[in-house]
């Protein structure tokens, strides 16, 4: 068989390798056959193709991205690789260039990359500082409709906690989010009245029936503990919609006892956690010399507490992360290396598939009869083969049909890069 090309028609993909946890087992890897017919996984055999041990995954879910920032690096590179440099550069570029046309073009480019790599669902954060909120949410609704049936899209608003209040411009932003069926979001960091601002945020979310998604403690400063505020407020208010918290970098620098107590609080509050290891590795501990910290949050300890732990891409070719391509196999590979997921259990695949689906309410991935035949198949036959190479020749099936995986050319964006 030519690995790069599957025959058409009902198929039986024989001799596939799969993470045992994805088919209800407790082991590492197992072999299985999949029958594909009329866009779904079935129990009816078709034309037999020997896959020779190729690894298969359900199409991926990328639950924390920034499609609105994506691919601005050529015109707005981070001057020093720091978090402060990223904030300043993105802010200036947003004010100068983020028209509806600019957003639409870059977001579509990024989605074509994600689709080619095998992603079927994405949650993106949208910078929503007025007047950008009116522009970006209209574009998002267009893109969601345009991409329906290929990538399921969700969006969460994004702005600093110091701009959240019960009666200011954030009320209009919350209304835009509700009208678009989105998720209410903000960046939580230490300010004098953080407890009241988090409570106001949840009051606005509850009044509109919205889920919540926070950027939290994206710093290595151990005194940054807004995660505790978010978790305690959820418990105090009885806020019962799903809440996601991302980054949580400061946990990695805190006293072990304090960090453990905070994670216990997160578990009691039922928060979903998403780790963004590539972006955090890039930005955190940026200094004049060699970095000492990876910036990743305490993923092993949270998983051990039963917290719904996920991984995602985060930024792509913008000042917060100069690299990346919305490729969840890359995220899986780098998360494994950065976070030492190897030698620590056999069920980490859930953190890239099942767990983000549960956190965001996307359709659960599956490899059982009746599930969509949305698959990513790699020539690799084992974890070490999978992570040793980028799997550039992977096969992506959507509704049982092999898609064209040609990636868009960066030159398509050149005209946007000349506007600044």
From TrEMBL:
Q: Which residues form the Amidohydrolase domain?
A: 47-96, 195-393
- Which Enzyme Commission numbers does its entry carry? 3.5.4.11
Record-given protein name = Pterin deaminase
Q: According to its UniProt record, what is one Pfam family this protein matches?
A: Amidohydro_3
One function term, GO molecular function aspect: pterin deaminase activity
Q: Provide this UniProt record's keywords sorted from A to Z.
A: Hydrolase
PANTHER family to which the protein is assigned, alphabetical:
CYTOSINE DEAMINASE
Q: Give the species this sequence originates from.
A: Roseobacter fucihabitans
Q: What class of enzyme is it?
A: hydrolase
This protein's source sits in the domain of life called Bacteria
Q: Which SUPFAM superfamilies match?
A: Composite domain of metallo-dependent hydrolases, Metallo-dependent hydrolases
Q: Which gene encodes it?
A: codAch2
Looking up Gene3D superfamilies in the UniProt record yields: Metal-dependent hydrolases (3.20.20.140), Urease, subunit C, domain 1 (2.30.40.10)
């Amino acid at each position: 068989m030519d690995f790069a090309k599957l025959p058409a028609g009902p198929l039986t993909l024989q001799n596939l390798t799969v993470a045992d946890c994805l088919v209800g087992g407790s082991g590492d890897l197992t072999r299985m056959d999949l029958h594909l017919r009329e866009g779904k996984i079935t129990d009816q055999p078709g034309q037999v193709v020997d896959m020779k041990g190729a690894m298969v995954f359900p199409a991926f879910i990328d639950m924390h991205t920034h499609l609105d920032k994506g691919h601005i690096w050529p015109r707005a590179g981070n001057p020093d690789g720091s978090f402060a440099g990223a904030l300043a550069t993105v802010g200036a570029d947003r004010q100068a260039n983020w028209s509806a046309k600019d957003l639409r073009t870059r977001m579509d480019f990024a989605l074509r990359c994600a689709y080619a790599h095998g992603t079927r669902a994405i949650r993106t954060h949208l910078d929503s500082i007025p007047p950008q909120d009116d522009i970006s949410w209209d574009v998002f609704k267009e893109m969601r409709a345009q991409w329906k049936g290929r990538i399921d899209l969700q969006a969460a608003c994004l702005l600093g906690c110091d701009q959240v209040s019960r009666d200011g411009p954030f009320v209009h932003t919350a209304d835009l989010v509700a009208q678009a069926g989105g998720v209410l979001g903000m960046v939580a960091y230490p300010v004098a009245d953080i407890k009241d601002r988090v409570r106001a945020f949840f009051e606005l979310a509850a009044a509109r029936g919205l889920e919540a998604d926070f950027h939290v403690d994206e710093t290595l400063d151990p005194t940054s503990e807004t995660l505790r505020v978010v978790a305690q407020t959820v418990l105090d208010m009885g806020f019962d919609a799903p809440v996601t918290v991302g980054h949580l970098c400061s946990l990695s620098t805190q006293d072990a006892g304090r960090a453990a107590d905070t994670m216990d609080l997160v578990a009691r509050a039922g928060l979903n956690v998403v780790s963004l290891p590539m972006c955090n590795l890039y930005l955190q501990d940026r200094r004049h010399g060699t970095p000492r910290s990876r910036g990743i949050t305490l993923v092993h300890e949270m998983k051990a507490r039963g917290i719904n732990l996920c991984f995602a891409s985060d930024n792509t070719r913008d000042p917060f992360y100069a690299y990346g391509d919305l490729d969840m196999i890359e995220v899986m590979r780098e998360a494994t290396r950065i976070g030492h997921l190897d030698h620590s259990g056999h069920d980490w695949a859930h953190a890239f598939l099942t767990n983000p689906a549960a956190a965001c309410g996307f359709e659960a991935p599956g490899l059982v009869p009746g599930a969509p035949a949305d698959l990513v198949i790699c020539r690799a036959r084992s974890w070490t083969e999978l992570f040793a190479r980028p799997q550039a020749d992977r096969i992506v099936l959507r509704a049982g049909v092999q898609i064209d995986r040609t990636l868009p050319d960066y030159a398509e964006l050149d005209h946007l890069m000349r506007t600044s």
